[in-house]
Amino acid sequence: MPRRPPERFAFDALQVDPCADQPLYRQLEQRLRDAILAGQLKPAERVPSTRRLAADLQVSRNTVSLAYAQLLSEGYLEAEVGSGTRVSRHLPDDLLQASPAPRTAASAAVGPRLSRRGSSVAALGQWITLPGVPPRPFRPHVPALDLFPRHIWRRLSQRRLRRMPWYEWGQVPPLGYPPLREAIAEYLGISRGVRCTAEQVVIVAGAQQAIDFVARLLLDDGEAAWIEEPGYTPARHLFELAGVEVVPVPVDGDGLSVAAGEQLRADARLAYVTPSCQWPTGLTMSLPRRLELLEWARCQSAWILEDDYNGEYRYDGRPLPAIHGLADDGHVIYMGTFSKVMFPGLRLGYLVVPDQLREAFRAARWMADRHSPPFEQAILTDFINEGHFARHLRRMRTACAARQQALVDALDRHLGGAVEVVGRESGLQLLVHAGAGMDARRLTTAAQKAGVEFHPLSVYAAAEPEREGMILGFAAYREEQIEQAVQDWAVRLERG
């Protein structure tokens, strides 16, 4: 077997720190980009395969793949069939400097710049994941895409292509395709206890747009909003970008602590909550706490934004009715999405708003992007009205319950007392803490070395949590994948 020619650049000396705040793939991407720009890696120079570099650096192959994918998309690397991956041959000469001149404060200030809000948006780049990269156990926020009935969706799409009137290909009302709004209102009344009419349903491009509209339309600069702590960090960012003062309110076993919120900012104008499946703990807000939150909203003339992103996934009894169904005075705005029960690429969600807000949301949707695509809305309408949605949801509940149990069993079998599992009653994720006598950093380092994907609890907390945790998604992974990933994790942990 011919020996591999020696490499001029010491790839195995690249430094990545699993304990750093920045993800490993971002660190590796930056190290390689710096080496190219500094001339340490020359144009057309070959880089190692993902498998070999992963082994050299003792990181997962997915980490290297993510770094390479970003550099390929930026033009720093190029790939050819049969030739592997190389440094791009077409980089501008003025970028390839052995010692690039440092930027001074004066030079950085020359020319147009971002606004303060723009700088805040740019700082959120770490939340943007690369598309098209297959998830590995146990990446959260990924539904069971392998179970989606694509053959039914294809058939409905083809039928709509043949039968959809020409004028519906133009525009639909900004609030959404009327038959879809009717179907959603009927579904919510039956399954989630939400009392609403189709006129109150606003179709949006997913949960992020819904939160953004709520923040901009209901809160003025400097007004306060309660956010669960720990909680859904992208929501916190959206409120901050809208000029809202974010007040992290601690979560206990009953949900967001209203008493703690009143001590922090009783005059807040809105509370953002995930009561059916608190993100990221997976716990459910108790009925007394829901009633307490409603009473606070009434006394303060405040809003409650109820994010029911995972309300359908409950494994201990029937799904609990929404807070919206307990209120009759218009203080609750209900929010849902099809990302977790169908597929994220659909980019369709909805809000249920009081009648007095309908015109404001209609105008906001029209100014933002007019409306969601009518074709996808029409197909989704058929999917719901013909019973496919209800059947798919039942299948998903059964499968996700089995996958959750497979993860719990695998953790117990292979890691035992090294981990402590929280929040099994609902959702598509588990929160795991290091068990008694186990060092949390050692546990997470072993997971990273085994190629196990997870989200640290700290990224969803405004302050350092009392106990660091790992958020493990399970919905997208078959039982055998779950077993193998936990087994690999345990082996790495044992090796130290």
Structural description of this entry:
By secondary structure, this protein is of the alpha/beta class. The chain is 40% helix and 13% strand. It has three domains: 1-98, Winged helix-like DNA-binding domain superfamily/Winged helix DNA-binding domain (Arc Repressor Mutant, subunit A), CATH 1.10.10.10; 170-386, Type I PLP-dependent aspartate aminotransferase-like (Major domain) (Aspartate Aminotransferase, domain 2, 3-Layer(aba) Sandwich), CATH 3.40.640; 391-495, Aspartate Aminotransferase, domain 1 (Alpha-Beta Complex). The protein contains 16 helices and 14 strands. An eight-stranded mixed beta sheet has the order 3-10-9-8-7-4-5-6, with helices on both faces. A four-stranded antiparallel beta sheet has the order 11-12-14-13. The longest helix has 27 residues, at 388-414. It starts with 23 loop residues before the first helix and ends with a helix.
Low-pLDDT residue spans: 104-108
Would you identify the CATH architecture of the largest domain? 3-Layer(aba) Sandwich
CATH class placement of the largest domain: Alpha Beta
First-residue to last-residue Cα separation: 34 Å
